[in-house]
């Protein structure tokens, strides 16, 4: 393959932001061949449980999607396509969804896919015994459902929930065999049974998961390139936590493809004619440092804006990603439906302005180390981090720390015990916190910033910034009720830029590198992760 | 003329800068037994090892001639040496306990030689091993062959070692201190065995510090000092009419009955003896057993001021236990020990401590007896503090003590490691004297010392007694020493006192058979 | 009897430099170990940065120099803890009655049943990461070992004939213990401890490797090393130099420790 | 002999109980709610119902002594409970990982021992520079953090020369590097001890008398000296176990191997009490057994101790 086509391919890949149907398309042409085993090197985020509803790890979907199909397919452009559901309609009040299900779908244990199966899956997600860390929350508005006929299910929500369908397209809500749910729910974690193109073989904890082809498979999603069974005989996912190890496993041919290609190696990958590269920006909230708006110093918007302006995100991100990441432009990533492109560039690096803002905020004094003070109090922000804090985030943290110091804000990184960390984050005892939230709808803003989602004793919420803004709440609530989301989400993003509840750093990509012999390796756009249904190996 | 078995001509051995053998020459004729005699550091052992090419790493060897049976040993390579060692020259090291591999049955050690130097295998070899053990007088050889060194008595071990040395029927047997660390009776037996080894075509080289041992065995004697042979000749002549002063000194230094009341070392004669005073220690029917094994049984004795009572006996006879009981360091199961009429048993801790000042002790191991970190000054100061000597006058008192034991003030700053064995024993005596005790218990006080040093220390003890009128409880396995140093003696065997009385009587006319055996076994300085 | 060789002097020299770096780092490096420069990340050794820069454009040399204090603290601090507590327990066991001895020894059995690192991990789960806790963790992990060592020594010394001699002299028991038993029991342990410092230092770096050591941005060799491993293919200098620092330090400490041991056993003539 | 073993086993049981109690108390009284560990973590959004469910299911609401009793009782019955994090029985979780670690530890132990013995035998009492060389090498590996050693090995043999796989627990090839990384520091320490011991033994009189029988140097070293020199090694069993298990944690993480070590780190981070407890007890058990075996072994190597028993 020539450099040119490679370049083309890559731009395609990034432009179409992980559009499922592109990716590692076969430029040399050639008809797909069946057979072979593909080994994927995953990062260390091995899910503790392979029940799609039972895990929240970022490697969850890549491991469960081969086994469990979803109800609907989400296309990169945001349209919802049929999959296990042929069609559906939503009542005007947005409270009732009626799904017409696909016929002839069989689970690996022979169980039949029908309305009852779907109902059971919903209930399994909600059932506390499932210990669902995510799915349950995602379908929180689910009330109950009624089997209309063999292939029709009527689902009732407690409140209108526009993103319902988008969410249903995510791997975390894949469909599990009703037989297994009824008869042996406790086995799902260890040995999930779904209807997917691959049948689960074996999970060697801390090591790998293996699958083999489902010969009966004939219900691929609409986004797929072909119908019928998958091409690969076998699929193995190996967990290689060490970045260097993972990359070298690919370079040395130990594995056929790797997920989360370490940014420091991307250039080498691109330079290597043996290797192909495929990347998609994950929709959702960019990797950010959230600022706790519920207590000093960040309860003062000026201080937040000051910090935002003080940090040279461009050069930091360029440095840590070796020029691979796009700097975040706002509070959703560029690949998220409803992304407000118009607002791009509104966050600017301007230390002078930052200083000014702090002065306005009254932080005018200085102590001996040049840290600002206000009536005797130092301008300090506590940033508790986990022991296994990713090296790269650490870099960003350290450089942010340095930048903040320049404007007289002292960021203190702390490494409390894991549990104290959780307690503190639940109590809101922190000034900064880091993270991202990948989901395929701008409703992520509601998840991250609506005052409902501030963690309380009663409720675990994702509003880490503990932001309370009536105006924003209203915008987001109405958006998820379904009233002209496009416009409302635009306004919400604009409002957030004023409120500056976080420092958004980069749009998190899902960079996958692979041996050239691997063809048509694609992504599931709903929650970008390698998807192997169309993938085949050139022998 | 027959050429000698061994010819050594101007042999020099040096380790680094230090030359330990400085040009010695001797010959050993066929069937002859030569004895190399000298004190530690005289270079006798190095000479012996050089003859089997085991001088040790970093040794530089030069010799006008170094020949074995006409063969030039200096020219030998490792391979050649291996044929000679064990094959033609048998080597018996001192102290069989450490000279036999403690983890291997003695039989294996002997079989090893056969395996290396003879064609014997399997059953034949085993048979030969038994044969050899029998030939050196080991009872039930088959059984013994399978036992580990520590399961054998010292005597048997030494015999086994000799068996290994002669296994391949070598022409020359070298025995380095073959009888040290052996009880006197056993020593006698081993010496006889060695004597038997000597035959028409087998020569013997015996290394020893003990002239008496040599007297019994050797045809000719060579006396070594500081790496040179000061005198050599027929045993009778050398021991009977020594020419060199050192030889004379050595001979004089050997304590035995005839030396009673004479000076062993060339030091000024001491003040006149005092008559025995009142009783200071009275032991009555003391007995003690450890885990059922009886160590001491019904031992009684009295010790008067200015008197020396000896306790002789072979290892395990209960000497040391008796001493510890006397010192009040361990309590007897039965009987009692009174010091100045006070019984240890009756006293509380404080009183015991006070009483301890009256009964001090001197150990065999001169090094272990001192806190390695303490200087002589501190050692003595501590002892004096116990005696209640005020701090300011301690130093001057220490100096007095040192002078009393023949050391000078500059030794005050030394640590135990920086002193010679003899000096350490002198310090030990000084320490024991510090609290001005009535009694000093001397447990094998000289058995770790070279004969000439031993002589000095024995004289010193004598002098001190005459100066201070202190009484000694003198424990030793060496009858010569006891005979020389003691007024009265207790002979112990298996924890019992078998005979007791004035030293002269006991040794002249021993009543008890065991005592007779002991006395008979004493090596005497008359050439055989 | 052997005299100290050049190796020993070399080791002593290294330790001297380390001590200097610990007390007065600014003398050894003019650069600020915290000075981030996003434009200068992972630069190879140059005039400006003799040992190159790290992923945040900080001067590696400066970070190694300024990291000395923390890194040494990991080793020496931990062993100090282990010595003090282990020592006291060991003496108590060696001098106390059977009950005391048994209790302490059984406890140390339990302690020894945990591999050092495991024990450290447990301690850190309780106390959390950070330099102080890492020191504590390794220190605690080493207590049982030293307790046993000191006990053994104490018993040995108690049985030695110079202690018996002191008793025979009529010295009060308390004084015998203070003057003879304690010093002679503790001294060899102190010597062994110097070697222990090296091992503790390595253990410390292991904790850093697991992300439980010193939190950033403070420099510490172990954590430098564990971060560097992600960039090993691009920036060898980032890993090699901190690694060398650790190894060199441990070697020096060990060499000195062994020399001291030989000396205390009277096997050298100085 | 039997009484000796029985007694030792009894003591061992005591140690295990102590270990169990210690870890339980320590981990129980550290702040934080295990329920969080079960479903918490970044990217998770557990609903209150879920949290309540977990607390009830694992009896986390019961007083500590009840939980403690519960733990002990189950352990006695060989049931170590269910892992908070993995939602599977601890015995299973450990079982899945145990073999990999065992394999690694054994491989490392053997490699380390062989290396140490070989080097020591070859160099003990030889010319100064040879000994210096060996000692230097030992010092170097013994003074280098295992993970750094591992990284170097990886970079050279796996990333650089592409000779050996860098990862996984499948096949012999994937065992070489981790085992080496784990073995080298151990070999360094053991080698030093062994050579010192050998050199001491080689000065013993019985070695001289062995030589005086005309034995070849190698024969003397192997047949007479080695056995003695091995004794101190045997007594270092505690160090062995510690070094191997502790090292496993690091090595497994670095080489992304399966194993108890990694399981433990994950468990400690997630406050997965049952697993931590399980692993601790396992390692304590190993320690106890190894020590027992060693004591017996010691009696084999050194028969003098037989009657001492």
TrEMBL record, chain A:
Its signal peptide is: 1-24
Q: Which stretches are annotated as coiled coil?
A: none
One Pfam family this sequence matches: SBP_bac_5
Q: Where in or outside the cell?
A: Cell membrane
The primary location reported for this protein is membrane
| Mode of membrane association | Lipid-anchor
Q: Where is this region: Disordered?
A: 23-58
An annotated GO BP: peptide transport
Q: Under the cellular component aspect of Gene Ontology, which terms does the record hold?
A: ATP-binding cassette (ABC) transporter complex; periplasmic space
Question: In what residue span(s) does the Solute-binding protein family domain sit?
Answer: 79-446
Keyword set for this entry? Signal, Transport
Output the Gene Ontology terms for molecular function: peptide transmembrane transporter activity
Top-level taxon in the UniProt lineage: Bacteria
Q: Please give the family membership noted in the entry.
A: Belongs to the bacterial solute-binding protein 5 family.
What is the protein named?
Peptide/nickel transport system substrate-binding protein
Protein species of origin? Nonomuraea jiangxiensis
Automatic annotation (TrEMBL), chain B:
Instruction: Enumerate the UniProt keywords alphabetically.
Output: ATP-binding, Nucleotide-binding, Transport
- Per its UniProt record, what PROSITE patterns does this chain match? ABC_TRANSPORTER_1, ABC_TRANSPORTER_2
Q: Gene3D superfamilies attached here?
A: P-loop containing nucleotide triphosphate hydrolases
Q: Which GO terms describe its molecular function?
A: ATP binding; ATP hydrolysis activity
Q: Record's InterPro entries?
A: AAA+_ATPase, ABC_transp_ATP-bind, ABC_transporter-like_ATP-bd, ABC_transporter-like_CS, Oligopep_ABC_C, P-loop_NTPase
Bilayer-crossing regions:
none
Q: Where is the ABC transporter domain?
A: 6-251, 281-519
Keyword Transport annotated: yes
Q: Name one Pfam family in it.
A: oligo_HPY
Q: Domain of life here?
A: Bacteria
**Which Gene Ontology BP terms does the record give?**
peptide transport; transmembrane transport
Which family does the UniProt entry place this protein in? Belongs to the ABC transporter superfamily.
What is the recorded name of this protein?
Peptide/nickel transport system ATP-binding protein
The species this protein belongs to is Nonomuraea jiangxiensis
TrEMBL record, chain C:
One GO cellular component, as annotated: plasma membrane
Give its localization. Cell membrane
One GO biological process this protein is involved in is: transmembrane transport
Domain spans labelled ABC transmembrane type-1 = 68-257
Write the record's keywords in alphabetical order, separated by commas.
Cell membrane, Membrane, Transmembrane, Transmembrane helix, Transport
Stated membrane topology is:
Multi-pass membrane protein
Which residues are listed as membrane-spanning? Answer: 72-95, 107-126, 132-150, 189-215, 235-260
Protein family membership: Belongs to the binding-protein-dependent transport system permease family.
Mind telling me what this protein is named? Peptide/nickel transport system permease protein
- The protein's organism comes out as Nonomuraea jiangxiensis
Q: What is the lineage of its organism?
A: Bacteria, Bacillati, Actinomycetota, Actinomycetes, Streptosporangiales
Automatic annotation (TrEMBL), chain D:
Q: Which UniProt keywords apply?
A: Cell membrane, Membrane, Transmembrane, Transmembrane helix, Transport
Q: Listed GO cellular component terms?
A: plasma membrane
> Where in or outside the cell?
Cell membrane
Pfam families (alphabetical): BPD_transp_1, BPD_transp_1_N
Indicate the transmembrane segments per the record: 7-29, 104-125, 137-160, 172-194, 230-255, 275-298
Which residues are in coiled coils? none
Stretches assigned to the ABC transmembrane type-1 domain: 98-298
The record's annotation in CDD domains points to: TM_PBP2
Q: Does Transport appear among the keywords?
A: yes
User: Its membrane topology, per UniProt?
Assistant: Multi-pass membrane protein
SUPFAM superfamilies this protein is in? MetI-like
Keyword Transcription regulation present in the record's keywords: the answer is no
Query: Which GO molecular-function terms appear in the entry?
Result: dipeptide transmembrane transporter activity
Protein family according to the UniProt entry: Belongs to the binding-protein-dependent transport system permease family.
Official protein name in the record:
Peptide/nickel transport system permease protein
Q: Which source organism? A: Nonomuraea jiangxiensis
Its organism's taxonomic lineage begins at:
Bacteria, Bacillati, Actinomycetota, Actinomycetes, Streptosporangiales
